[in-house]
Amino acid sequence: MTTSKKPSSSTLPADAAPAHDTVAKQRAIQAAQDHHDDSKKRSSKEKPSESSHDFAAPGPGHEEPKPPLPRQTLQKPGSESDLQLEPRYAAEHYRGSGKLDGMSVLITGGDSGIGRAVAVLCAREGADVAIAYLDEHEDARKTCELIEAEGTRSLAMAGDVKDVAFCDTVVRKVVATFGKLNVLVNNAAFQEHAASLEDLTEERFDETFRTNIYGYFHMAKAALPHLQRGDSIINTGSVTGLLGSKELLDYSATKGAIHAFTKALAHNLAERGIRVNAVAPGPVWTPLNPADKTPDDIEKFGASTHLGRPAQPEEISPAYVFLAAPCCSSYITGIVLPITGNAGDGA
What we know:
Elements: H1 19-44, E1 104-108, H2 113-124, E2 128-133, H3 137-149, E3 154-158, H4 164-178, E4 183-186, H5 202-223, E5 232-236, H6 239-243, H7 249-269, E6 275-281, H8 295-299, H9 313-324, H10 326-329, E7 336-339
Parallel strand pairs: 1-2, 1-4, 2-3, 4-5, 5-6, 6-7
Helix pairs in contact: 2-3, 2-9, 4-5, 5-7
């Protein structure tokens, strides 16, 4: 843990954009899909599988939870505090060594899941960390407490990354509070399954693209004037952007776009010494999936990987530190790093 800086209290200002409208829209999309799924299940007279669960408490010395996982669904955008099985984000065996001392990091979707785990490790490596999130205020407060417990400063801002003005405001606030911005982690995402192309409305398609790729574009453009040689942008891609997913047509398309955007932007910014990379996780136990999938799908989530389980966020976050730290990756740009629990062609 780095203790060279005195932690400051986090701030949770009022929404800078109509985040509540976005939440309502996303929940309406979720409700429509749930109704469609229920109708199909009743017509086929499917019965949910029954299983007993004996989950080990998170922490060192315990085996990572494997399917069957809790048959739980969450209302969008999904709160980590509501999960029956708490994701592991603390990476208690990870020892910081000052890789990000004196740096400032901004993480979108930083309140929970992968974003929270990355925030904890960046703080452990000495960085001040700001998070942007939609409206999961309880999760955001918890993440700020975790950042400050590592000995650095935190900042949290609520709003919608689809909104250009919010993205500009977030970056200005980070620079005003921390004095600079060195690393942008684009991580916010919207996901909702659909069994067929016919289920996808233009409204849903727009929501996915404007959140997942437009949001990355807006944040990168807002951050760029403040980034210097040696700084970096890290985008969260997905195995679905590498292999596709038959029930995540729009989400897979956005993740493929993020991978291409990463490579193109890396080429574009190379002469300025700003590195751009992406991490492409496989299934990860975060609120994103219980706020999308059916109980049947959640129960077996990650079971098809070679390792037979989903990743925990703390198993993904060290890759972001590696790509953010110039001492580790100063000669790496334009890569999409897959962390998927699979070997060989399993991506």
